[in-house]
């Protein structure tokens, strides 16, 4: 999230909090696609990480982008930590270790999405190249130790950095040493949200396998295909993972609110200052737990919106659904990830087929898949057959959905063209992580350094 929300509207009761989510309902013709992608920032001279401060730095990139785009700077304690398009059509933000993120505008089709990402990267390169800076598309930092990784001066990250070691073993690696591609998608009703949430929760590990691209840590193979996927198995299990209640046939907005209320908070913002609230849940906050700690201790909708942004289930519910399972990757995958999910969820026939395919998948089966995919990828056995077989079925459904949408570019090509990187994975029976490992053991001669030149933006 580029900018934490300020909305002073008081919260009067829990029903209003569910109504806030339900306000995301919209007619199908107003469905949009919002794509987010993160990338590591490095110096081309020695593949070292780029610090926040200095002439050649993360802050210099942000200032350069602000001058180029005219987007509004986002300031935290005097430091620029992001940019926002003035009419709400996109934002740039920083992850804790300097990962540079575009949160794209809500767009109508995938042709626009791919054009947006290409324009962003082209503009960013104009600013970065004179500084000797480029960008790496991978799911995990392949070389830098935690100590070598920069720290961004962002108040919410200070709070999270102190808190993460208390609730899991890999939270700091998640924050500082991973990158993702995500897509945010709409729903038309509570029932439509339920269907999309359940299908996408069940298939999220398949996305992790298809997009696996984090096989290296600190300069050597880490024994995994998706180190990032494995990190999420023990980051903060109070607020992350599969959320089993969402598998219920009557799951709805109120159920998500009930869960969110009992998750410990990270912070509230008052007069621009962040207050550490990790010692209370939102339910306790509503009951007056912060009285005497902060002057304005009563919750408002800005607090609720910010709290929702600090929950990390595999599919996150706001006024839209966020698909959170994929590693970051090269630029073609920035288009492939939203294509995969739009194809499955935005066409009625495809959603019916995906729902039928996954209907009797149990929480236990899906949880076991989530545990094994980071190491085995598409080679995992699921219901007696390799996950590759399931991937073929699902990709076929996604393709049918994109063809049925019939959103054509100026050359008459539909959106299914963006599935090509996933077709290649299935044709080779190898993920990008496995390609990288083969190169490491072959042409790269046991070095991860070539990854910076071969997978850069």
TrEMBL record:
Pathway: Sulfur metabolism; glutathione biosynthesis; glutathione from L-cysteine and L-glutamate: step 1/2. GO terms for molecular function: glutamate-cysteine ligase activity. Its EC number is 6.3.2.2. Keywords: ATP-binding, Disulfide bond, Glutathione biosynthesis, Ligase, Nucleotide-binding, Plasmid, Transit peptide. Pfam families: GCS2. Transmembrane segments: none annotated. InterPro entries: GCL_bact_plant, GCS2, Gln_synth/guanido_kin_cat_dom, Glut_cys_lig_pln_type. Belongs to the glutamate--cysteine ligase type 2 family. EgtA subfamily. Homodimer or monomer when oxidized or reduced, respectively. Catalyzes the synthesis of gamma-glutamylcysteine (gamma-GC). This is Glutamate--cysteine ligase.
